[in-house]
Amino acid sequence: MNGFMRDSSIVFRRQIRMNLRNPAWVLIGVFQPVLYLLLFGPLLKPLVAQFPGGADNAYTFLVPGLLVQLGLFGAFFAGFSLIGEWREGVIEAERVTPASRGSLLVGRLMRDVLQLFVQSLILVLLGLAIGMRGSFDGIVLGIVITLVIGGACAAASNALGMATKSEDVMAPVINIVMMPVLLLSGILLPMTLGPDWLKRVSDFMPTRWITDAIRDVFAGDVANGTVLSGSLAALVFLALAAWWGVSTFQKDDA
């Protein structure tokens, strides 16, 4: 275990150095949550205040949804950088070292989760500054759930990148998956605004459970079935995605 964590930390430090050498990506990663809230917030605030069953504070509804959006959409682009590393021979060079294949993935996931944590923290602090209300414990738990689903999406993205080895293939796959997820998860708009058949479909979306769970914990309602089902869904996603990611790194022809 000590060797595995040492190898993972080496990969993590290398990935961080690569990010810091390209400050444009660092700035984009920092300003992305700010732009989400400042641009989407004023646009959606009047709608959130009007729909039935909405939060008593519009930003208490919007910020959790934007956290899920960051965890899903932001982390799903992690595989694109992996494709570039594979093309440059970095992955093959790492795989001939004594480091375990799993650590090659975990080290990258540590970088992705750290970036998501910084983005989430900025988003929450900005939300609080402009009027969001929420319990401290609930906000902490909401960020933790966001990091879990973000880690799952990053692992899946890395696995998809290793499987396709092509940005031209990976980009449309992500778009096909993400568009219905964005709609049916109620990330930006509540599903109560849609027709009954659409609401019934969204009831089977695990990402909808995760979105509802984070909204509930932000509102201080921690002990309910929605939070439990959303948390379990995030953990199951992480376990499956990590297994897929490690499997792709272990393949000799990957």
How would you explain this protein's 3D organization?
Pfam families: ABC2_membrane. This is Transport permease protein. GO terms for molecular function: ABC-type transporter activity. InterPro entries: ABC2_TM, ABC2_TM_bact-type, ABC_2_transport, Nod_factor_ABC_transporter. It is a single chain. With about 250 residues, the protein is mainly α. The protein has one domain (about 65-250). The protein has helices at about 1-20, 25-50, 60-75, 80-85, 90-95, 100-130, 135-165, 165-185, 195-200, 205-220, 225-250. The model has no long low-confidence stretch (mean pLDDT about 85).
Short description:
The protein starts with a helix and ends with a helix. It is mainly α and 254 residues long. It has eleven helices and no strands.
